[in-house]
Amino acid sequence: MPSKTRRIVHRNRPRLRGSGWVIIPLTMGSRYCADGLLLLALFASPLIAQSNPGEPIRPEWCRELPRPQYKKFDRVDVASDWFEVYRITHGVFAIYEPHQFEEVISYLIIGNKRALLFDTGLGIGRISDVTAKLTKLPVIVVNSHTHPDHIGGNAEFSEIYDEDTPFTRLHEQGNWKEFARDAVRPERICGKLPAAFDTAAYHSRPFHVTHRLKDGEQIDLGDRKLEVIFTPGHTPDALCLLDRANGMLFTGDTYYPGPIYLFMPETDWAAYSASVARLAALQSKLKLLLPAHNVPTADPEDLLRLKQAVGDLNAGRVKPAVRDRQREYNFNGFSLLLADK
After folding, report:
1. Number of Cα atoms under 13 Å in the Cβ half of residue 264
2. Which residues is 110 bridged to in the sheet?
3. Of 44, 102, 209, 316, whose CB count within 10 A is highest?
């Protein structure tokens, strides 16, 4: 969550929890919630039962849409009633889902031989229809991690690269019916669902991974190469993609401007700290960060601020706001949300 001195407020969505969402109001604002009320949810592994679907979300969360940050990018017409597509730079498109308060952003990265889709969103709209309008090249899917808001469209593709972790393999099986049910509740939708969408049938579909990624592996798209960087912490299978030649880092949920969720059972704070240090070491070589929620670009210097924040937290130099079983450490432009001890 941005600091109190900045009006931008991010990450309005609740976080998923195995069998439903528990919504927790905080005072620092939301993921772009208009009145600054943060609506959070505790996320647990699908192995942990949670039957409470959560209280209703305030309808004001979508009042500020569309985000002003998108005005500087060219919008690409893909004739979709769910997705909005923006050209970030040559060969890179942000595929944004503004009508559900996860506000997921997937990225299509196009080379001259192949294209790569970094995450596939919620699975509410058919993201494969969008990619087909943007490129005729074969598309590889890579997931930043396997929370269901990032794998919803995986089943629409035949070539999927992911890590080989128990967490990943569990989520390849699909289902997430409680997540799916709550994701399309009226208070979580801004505008309308796609005309052809079947609410009753919605679920996270199983998918087949065709290649297991290794840390440091390069994915060759022809005239563009992407380096896989394992960044465990947010989840055990979190990763980023680095385009060294163009100075771009696709950060997934490891970093974005907003409250960074690090309180789930699968979160590993020590691993996250190490991952942040690894990414911060790249800062001088970067021109652009591309995160997975809310807005499509961020300043690479944010990685240095994030590293400093993590260091301050580990050294006990900052005090959190403690409420509702969570500790929120507020910094300039983001916050770190940890489970209360």
Report:
1. 25
2. 115
3. 102
User: Does 18 have pLDDT greater than 90?
Assistant: no
Residue ranges of the alpha helices (H) in the chain? 127-134, 166-171, 177-183, 269-280, 301-314
In the chain the domains, ranked by start, together with CATH numbers, are 23-49+59-339 (3.60.15.10)
Model pTM score: 0.84
Residue 107 · residue 93 · CB < 8 Å: yes
User: What pLDDT band is residue 301 in, cutting at 50, 70 and 90?
Assistant: very high
3-state secondary structure of 85: strand
pLDDT exceeds cutoff 80 at 28: no
The rounded distance, in Å, linking the Cα atoms of 313 and 2 is 17
Question: Is there a contact between 328 and 337 (Cβ–Cβ < 8 Å)?
Answer: yes
Residue 25 one-letter amino acid: P
Structure confidence by residue, pLDDT tens digits, 41-95: 333 333 322 323 333 344 567 887 878 999 999 999 999 999 999 999 999 999 9
The conformational region for residue 125 under phi > 0 = left, psi -120 to 50 = alpha, else beta, is beta
Query: Does residue 112 contact residue 91 with C-beta atoms inside 8 Å?
Result: no
For 279: left if phi > 0, alpha if psi spans -120 to 50, otherwise beta; the answer is: alpha
Parallel/antiparallel/unpaired status of strands 248-252 and 288-291: parallel
Give the closest residue to 253 by CA, choosing from 177, 152, 148, 116.
148
In the block, tokens 């923006």 appear at 86
Largest interatomic CA distance in the chain: 52
Q: For the packed helices 269-280 and 301-314, what is the interaxial angle rounded to 10 degrees?
A: 140
Amino acid identity at 282 = L
Phi first, then psi: give them for residue 329, nearest 5 degrees: -105, 115
In this structure, are residues 104 and 150 in contact, taking their beta carbons and an 8 Å threshold?
yes
Question: How is residue 271 annotated by DSSP?
Answer: H
292 close to 253: Cβ distance less than 8 angstroms: yes
